[in-house]
Design brief:
Layout (H helix, E strand, L loop, with lengths): L7 H30 L4 H18 L2 H24 L1 H5 L4 H4 L1
InterPro entries: UCP07580
Protein name: Metal-dependent hydrolase
GO molecular function, one term: hydrolase activity
Length: 100
C-alpha cells in the first residue's frame, strides 16, 4: 500500500522496509534449504503455516490478526535471542540437525 502514502519520509521508510523484507525472505529460503539438507520436514511445516495464515486472515477480526502477528514476531525475536546467546548448542553440536 506504499502508493497511498503521501509523506515522503514515511514512504522512504516503507520502501526500506520492503527491501529489508526481501532480504529476510531470501535468508529464510536459504535456511529452509539447509534444514531440508538434514531432513527436517520443512515442506510440511510451510504447508501448515501457510494454511493457518490463510484461515486466520479470512476468518479473524483485524484486532486479533494484529495481536497474533505481534505475538509471532515476539516469539521469533525471543527465539533468535536465545539462539544467539547459546550458539554453541546450535553451531558446534555434533548433531547435524542442531547445526542447521
Amino acid at each position: 500500500h506504499r502508493e497511498f502514502i503521501q509523506d515522503p519520509v514515511l514512504k522512504q521508510r516503507v520502501t526500506s522496509l520492503i527491501g529489508q523484507e526481501a532480504i529476510h525472505s531470501k535468508l529464510h529460503n536459504e535456511y529452509n534449504d539447509a534444514l531440508k539438507d538434514v531432513e527436517y520436514p520443512v515442506d510440511l511445516y510451510r504447508f501448515l503455516g501457510e494454511n493457518f495464515f490463510k484461515y486466520v486472515f479470512l476468518k479473524f477480526p483485524q484486532p486479533l490478526k494484529l495481536s497474533m502477528m505481534a505475538g509471532i514476531e515476539h516469539f521469533t525475536a525471543v527465539l533468535a535471542e536465545y539462539m544467539m546467546k547459546h550458539e554453541k548448542n546450535f553451531y558446534y553440536s555434533d548433531d547435524a540437525k542442531s547445526r542447521a
